[in-house]
Amino acid sequence: MITYDASFSTMWANKKFPALDDFFIAAWQMGFARVELSHQINSAMLAGIELDHYQFSSIHEPCPADISTEMLKERDWLVSSPDEESRRQGVTSIKRSIDLAQALGAGIVVMHSGSIQADGSLEINLRALFEAGQVHSQGYLELKNQLAEIRAARAGICLASVKKSLMELLEYAGHFSIRLGLENRYHYFDIPNLDEMGVLLSLAGPDQLGFVYDVGHAQALDRLGFYPHEEWLQRYSARMIGVHLHDVIGITDHLAPGLGEVDFDMIAAYLPERALRTCELQSTNTAEQVEAGLMFLAEHGCIKCL
Hints:
It contains eleven helices and ten strands. By secondary structure, it is α/β, with parallel strands linked by helices. The strands form two sheets. An eight-stranded parallel barrel has the order 1-2-3-4-5-6-7-10, surrounded by six helices. The chain has a two-stranded antiparallel ribbon with strand order 8-9.
């Protein structure tokens, strides 16, 4: 059996397995060396499993998701919140993920940095225009400019909250020698954007803080006309500590590599040797597509056989 130097996100496990350890076994059988616990995993799913039998590469906060990502967003319990009590709740949620990483021997916590407080329906409408083939229309351009104006006007106060939160989390994670990885996000109002990533990474050295490059998120925002995909790599590959590998058709992501439009040869040229490779795939991908995706990534130089 071939084993690849890659991790498999539990995103794929969603509603596929009666127990989480069945996913761990399936991941190993497909050729993954390690597992990343995603923000869909709660304490009840982990209960009763002999977790020391498995290798965990990373924890994607909020995990354990005893308070779901949807609820955290609804309450604005995010590290970006201008409200101090809500911001503290966001910090506490990520601290629980750091605690879990320490318990399981995972060296990285993948972190979302919150979002700008704005009307999310505007981006929904923009994406609908994209899907309708209206990306070059006057209406698309006007809506895109409206989003940019709103983000520029509101980003400052939320980014200040993220900086404050990140400094607290870096101190906490430093007690356990766990690195925080800032992920580039899928939605335009999410933090950080291309410039904000550099601002946040400047707060600590690479032994504490790094960039987790999400292929699909970069591709989707490129297709929408916001940030060139490759610029994330040109600017921040030297700080990359992890990568979420998945393919994209249009702006639909989390497909098995090889099923979409992503240029994985371009990506392979930027990946640092020690950056953690994780396949983050939606559960609609079949096991055959996942295994073929692993082979595809190896053929294109993104992962290696052990």
